[in-house]
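Re: export button greyed out
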Amino acid sequence: MSGDHPRRRNALTSRLFVAFGPGPGRLLTRILLPALSSGLVLLALARLEGEAAGYYATEFGTALLVFIAIAGVAGGLVWAAYQLNRAEAERAKSEAERAQLATIVETAQDAIWGKTLDGIVTSWNPAAESVFGYRADEMIGTPVTVLFPPDHAPEEAAIIERVARGERLAPFESVRRRKDGSMVQVSVGISPIRGVDGDIVGVSTIVRDISDLKRVEDELRRSNAELEQFAYVASHDLQEPLRTMSSYVQLLARRYRDQLGGDAAEFIDYTVEGANRMQRLIQDLLAYARVSAKELPALATDADAALARTVRDLGSTIAAANAVVTHDALPGVIADAGQLQQLFTNLLSNAIKFRSAETPAVHISASVSENTVTFVVRDNGIGIAREHHERVFAVFQRLHRRDAYPGTGIGLAIARKIVERHGGRIWIESEVGRGTTFRFTLPAALSPNI
Amino acid sequence: MPIATAPIEILIVEDNPADVRLALEALGETALHNNVHVAYDGTEALEMLRRTGRHENAPPIDIVLLDLNLPGKRGLDVLREIKHDEHLKRIPVVVLTTSQAEQDVVQSYQLNANAYVTKPVGLDDYFRALKSIETFWLERAKLSRA
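Workaround output, generated via the alternate export path:
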């Protein structure tokens, strides 16, 4: 029995603590209670003083005292009720906000869970259930390390250590293990959870299943590697027999010209020319294939600088044709600098090659609208008939005789591939004899002058 | 034996007989006193350079013309072995190949190739290329002979 007493007193003390502690009840215990008590003492004093001074009869004084006391208590109750209702409304509002946040977490596509600083899972959303195969009731209360494959186990301690310092971890890629033991490629973002007083009370983890993304990336990498392999084969193995053929036919000519018949020299020339042409085709096909093999950086590129390099590199071609190349100021674009230069090179050399009797003049300008730059390359050359406007962009398509305009017909195909790879498009405005205007679009760099 | 009168020993590492013959034709047209040796794969080339196995009595090689596209041991592996061999690394190695691939050029120089020459398609150009190799390495440059 002797043990009961302190426990009961403890219970009473702890209830008093709650009554005087934080919460809406504090209004009553800390404000209303002292206000009422001191009000009653003041009333009693006023009554005694009033009686002694003979302001009123005893009966009237009693009635007045009771009336004022009741009015005071009633007023206090109304005020307390107001405060209590207001606290309740605030609680309901934050409850609704909590419910809304809970719905977002429940319906999120990403796996989201909370855990203590000891790594024990405290919440587990449905997306987490479907990504990892563990139900919420299995995971809550379980160490999160069950999700870590052995070689990633040390990650957890490092994560907790950084989060405990208040750090947020930017999404990083890792591997986690499902309930069935299979691995899942994930992107993980981690933030500390802070309590009302700002202390870190837990850890929030948001995990995205990036297996599909990874698979696509791997496929792309593999196909690029295959393309590189093809390109390598083409640059070596395909060209070697050509070179052998061409060399020996020439050696034949050099050594036995006199003993061969009259047509021999012509036949030999055709053979050599065929081999040379084949080699150019292989090299051009390679250049075409390489456009998409190169990874695109999302970098702002100065189109002015790319054009300046192009004009410099084409210097001898421009000079030989007496061509005049002019341009307006060009804006920055999101493009690979090398490919942008190749694009300008192909369009400029095209404009100069297909010149008319006039002095070749090429003008390059650009306009920006929203996030797109439209470039305009205008020449005064021979022009392209409307029915060929699409065809000129196809691989190895040519509109003119070889002896008039040499070339394999790859230039505009490469130009289109470069533009389309950057998410733009390219088209022609032209008529025979009236010059040609190429227009192409590229994504604008964020700052107009980079 | 004074250097001026000693014949120059050239090793061609090349698996395509047509190319070997073409190189011999080109080198045969020069006035230089040279002996041309041919290795048809990388292993044979290293044996000839090290004068081991069947090639114990081979003369010391002054310059190597190396094709990259070889059966078995790749041309770049041969180059690496030559340039890592204390006794062989002084020998100039000219990579003479059809490949125009940037990766081959870069890797060859990283492995300390002395020059990288792409075999030209035209016969005259090819002859000129081989002659310029010969003129530079065998006439202009002073070789260190073992």
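The longest strand of chain B covers residues 8-13. The button fix ships in the next patch.
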